[in-house]
Amino acid sequence: MVDESSVSNRCALMKTLLVVEQLRRKVPGGIGTYARSILESLARIEIGSGTELELFASRYGEAGSDPLLEYGFPLSTSKLPHLLAQRAWDRGLDPPKLAKDEVMHSFSMGGPRLRATSNRSIFTIYDTAWIEVPETFPRRGRSWHAGAFDHIRKSGSHVVTISERSVASLIQAGIEPDRLTLIPPGSDHLSVADKGATERLLSELGVGSTFILSVSTLEPRKNLQRLVEGFRRFKALNAEPIDLVVVGPRGWDNSRIDPIADVHMVGLVSPSVLAGLLTKAASLVYVPLYEGFGLPVLEANVSCVPVVASDIPASEGCALIVDPLDPDSIAHGIERSIFDTRLRSELVTCGLLRANEMTWSRATKGHLDLWKRLGAE
What we know:
With 377 residues, the protein is an alpha/beta fold. The protein has helices at residues 4-13, 29-44, 82-90, 129-132, 139-155, 164-172, 195-205, 224-237, 271-280, 295-302, 327-339, 341-357, 360-376, and strands spanning 15-19, 52-59, 75-81, 103-106, 121-124, 158-161, 180-182, 211-215, 243-247, 263-267, 283-286, 307-309, 320-321. The strands form two sheets. The chain has a seven-stranded parallel beta sheet. Strands 10-9-8-11-12-13 form a six-stranded parallel beta sheet, sandwiched between helices. Helix 7 crosses helix 9 (271-280), helix 8 (224-237) crosses helix 11 (327-339) and helix 10 (295-302) packs across helix 12. The longest helix is centred in the middle third of the chain and has 17 residues, at 139-155.
């Protein structure tokens, strides 16, 4: 006979330790957006007595209150700051102490490596880009990703990923299907647009009323060199005053990008200015060589902006697909996204309908269900 009070007490004590080390980075990127959005959604809902959440990260090295406390969850930290902590974790050192029925979920392949294999350890792997397009990674980056993945594969850890395509690539790379859970991202994370700051930025850049937007890190995998060349060919055939605005941080080997007239490499902007740029852009052009999903596409969808994109998961069905290796294809896509009124309307309608179905509350429920299931095993 099952002792119901014992089961109840055990459920009440279940805890999930959320490793949010990506939010310690100066530029958290798309992984940071995913982690932050899940935390913000968790903070807004009633989690229930079956799950207790605690955040874990490296020691906060700045003056003042730790920003991770703003989410309202208990926080424990390593004794080491970010750069040293990840080096220690890569060697299996300085792991957090977990009780037998606790779950640890890292929102990236980084974070602590538990010494013992456990199906209560979870990692989110967004793609296998270091396998699919290794030439777009520095040697050290390829080596780190390969080592981290090898640990996860051998450890028996559960894996969360964000698209059907990533599920397939992870299975091919050696993760068993029963160790995989698909949880796509949400679209409802954009800040309220700061129209004044957006107008000032565009004025300082000398950008007119019509511009194309691209949002990505300046690194080889994002294929910005071919995007700029495609834009150049588009401009050669169209006399209209149209600019290309590229928003995002500098990554590795960004020297390959050759700016031309009417191309503005803006760098990082605030979330409210990014939202403002999306409200004013004629279209979003996003042509990476490989992506596990492609969050900028979803951000454009929810902002009613037509999208030109390479064949990545986020662009399926609601973007004009172009060949990322062919600047002429990119140029033609840009032209249609601006001048083909019917196509623009179709892309906006399709994108908005799709984005409205993809919410962070839905993604959060997927996480809660997974934590409770693994915690109960």
